């Protein structure tokens, strides 16, 4: 009977001393919270899971042991000798991150240096911008020479070959033609029947007449920006409409 009373008194004492304490799991390296860690009190055989900010609460008494584990961290065992007080806001538990050593991996396409040299030499390397331009210029020169009427070439019966002077003259003609085409390409991007139609609605013969009415100089079209040319086209169109209206009134 005395034994039963003593056991009941001891159980009542443990129940009174078992108080809920608040904790937070944090990363020992940077102090960031550790979510969803698992905590087990082996003394009372109770387990809980921390929330997304690492907070959890657990009844702890002197003599209990907390076993904490979390993914990517070393497990920790904390014995309780009465150091935890339920009056505190929370106790931080700092877990050490695990470090995983990965063996060095080398990735190579070539089995040997000799094979590397051989395959690089056989690669179809992209051409530089200068090489592409040079090829286009050579192609242009060849096509121009094929189309040219070589009226000043020496007769074949004379046994003569084309000298440096003749070749330089032909190259000069080709360069002049190339510059002229480039110049008209710049002008057509700024002033053409398509642009006139887009800005005024005129087309066909009427658009050509309006372009003649504009009377833009070649120098202006080369120097002016596209915006400036379009602005002048719009201004000229207003004058063109007024000019046509006056012409119609005079004719009537």
Domain count: the total is 3
CATH architecture of the largest domain: Sandwich
Taking the sheet with the most strands, its summary is: 4 strands, antiparallel
Helical content (DSSP H or I, runs of 4+): 40-55%
Output the CATH class name of the largest domain. Mainly Beta
> Considering the protein shown, what is the CATH homologous superfamily of the largest domain?
Carboxypeptidase-like, regulatory domain
Write a brief structural summary:
The chain is α+β, with helices and mostly antiparallel strands and 252 residues long. The protein contains eight helices and seven strands; from the N terminus they run αβββββββααααααα.
What do these coordinates show?
With 252 residues, the chain is an alpha+beta fold. It folds into three domains: 12-95, Carboxypeptidase-like, regulatory domain (Immunoglobulin-like), CATH 2.60.40; 107-147; 187-251, no CATH class. Helices cover 49% and strands 15% of the residues. It contains eight helices and seven strands; from the N terminus they run αβββββββααααααα. Strands 3-2-5-6 form a four-stranded antiparallel beta sheet, with no helix packed on it. A three-stranded mixed beta sheet has the order 4-1-7. α5 packs across α8 (226-251). The chain starts with a helix and ends with a helix.
Secondary structure: elements and pairs:
Elements (H helix, E strand, L loop, with lengths): L1 H16 L1 E9 L10 E4 L4 E4 L5 E6 L4 E5 L6 E4 L11 E5 L17 H10 L6 H19 L16 H27 L2 H8 L3 H11 L3 H6 L2 H26 L1
Parallel strand pairs: 1-7
Antiparallel strand pairs: 1-4, 2-3, 2-5, 5-6
Helix pairs in contact: 5-8
């Amino acid at each position: 009977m005395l034994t039963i009373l003593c056991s009941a008194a001891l159980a009542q004492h443990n129940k009174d001393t078992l108080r809920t304490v608040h904790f937070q799991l944090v990363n020992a390296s940077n102090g960031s919270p550790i979510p969803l860690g698992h905590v087990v009190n082996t003394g009372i055989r109770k387990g809980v899971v921390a929330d997304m900010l690492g907070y959890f609460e657990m009844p702890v008494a002197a003599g209990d042991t907390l076993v904490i584990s979390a993914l990517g961290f070393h497990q920790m065992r904390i014995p309780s000798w009465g150091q935890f007080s339920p009056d505190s806001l929370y106790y931080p538990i700092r877990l050490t991150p695990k470090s995983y050593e990965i063996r060095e991996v080398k990735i190579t396409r070539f089995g040997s240096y000799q094979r590397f040299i051989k395959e690089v030499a056989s690669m179809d390397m992209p051409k530089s911008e200068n090489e592409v331009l040079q090829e286009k210029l050579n192609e242009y020169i060849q096509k121009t020479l094929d189309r040219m009427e070589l009226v000043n070439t020496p007769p074949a019966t004379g046994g003569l070959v084309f000298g440096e002077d003749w070749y330089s003259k032909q190259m000069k003609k080709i360069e002049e033609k190339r510059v002229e085409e480039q110049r008209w390409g710049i002008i057509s991007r700024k002033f053409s029947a398509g642009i006139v139609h887009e800005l005024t609605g005129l087309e066909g013969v009427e658009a050509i007449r309006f372009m003649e009415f504009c009377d833009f100089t070649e120098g202006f079209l080369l120097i002016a920006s596209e915006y400036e040319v379009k602005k002048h086209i719009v201004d000229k169109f207003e004058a063109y409409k007024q000019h046509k209206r006056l012409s119609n009134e005079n004719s009537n």
